[in-house]
């Protein structure tokens, strides 16, 4: 009789443990994806009007990549390419934006975004801001561990290289301020 009692209790413990493990797996799965949130950006304005439109188009592209929306990224890249073509010295950067526009897959767009951001960051480091601040942000894991930078109008990290997979992966490495 004692043996049956122990077998019954053992079976219940095993059953409860299996149910608990399944619940923990589900909870773990949900915690990895972080929601994309719209955050208030600081108002950034430039002394040169053309730079304002380039910056706005760049931020639209970055936001589309954060949200993992390749069609919106194509649209934003098209607008950015048009603005860059009309800005002296940015013709090669316009070609990178055109390449992003031509790509339909998010992974390819994000890869090209690295080179685009490198050029855009260099440009805005020398731009004259009237007000606000631009944050240069960096994700060390982007591009298979080579890292990737981008610009943002806020300190909060919203990673364009990983989106909701690793939304907050990265750090502010520099702040470009109005002088």
Structural account:
Helices cover 54% and strands 13% of the residues. By secondary structure, it is of the alpha+beta class. It has 5 helices and 5 strands, in the order αβααααββββ. The strands form 2 sheets. A 3-stranded antiparallel sheet has the order 4-3-5. It has a two-stranded antiparallel sheet with strand order 1-2. α2 runs antiparallel to α3, α2 packs antiparallel against α5 and α4 packs antiparallel against α5. β3 and β4 form a beta hairpin. The radius of gyration is 23 Å and the shape is globular. The chain has one domain. The termini are far apart.
Topology overview:
Layout: H1 2-32, E1 45-46, H2 49-66, H3 70-85, H4 91-102, H5 106-125, E2 129-131, E3 133-139, E4 148-152, E5 171-177
Antiparallel strand pairs: 1-2, 3-4, 3-5
Helix pairs in contact: 2-3, 2-5, 3-4, 4-5
Q: Please, what is the average pLDDT?
A: 83
CA-based shape: globular
Distance between the termini: 86 Å
Strand content: 5-15%
**Main sheet makeup:** 3 strands, antiparallel
Instruction: Provide the spatial order of strands within the biggest beta sheet.
Output: 4-3-5
Poorly predicted regions are 3-40
Question: Helical element count?
Answer: 5
Percent helix, as a range, is: 40-55%
Number of domains in the coordinates?
Answer: 1
What class, by secondary structure content?
A: alpha+beta
Alpha carbon gyration radius: 23 Å
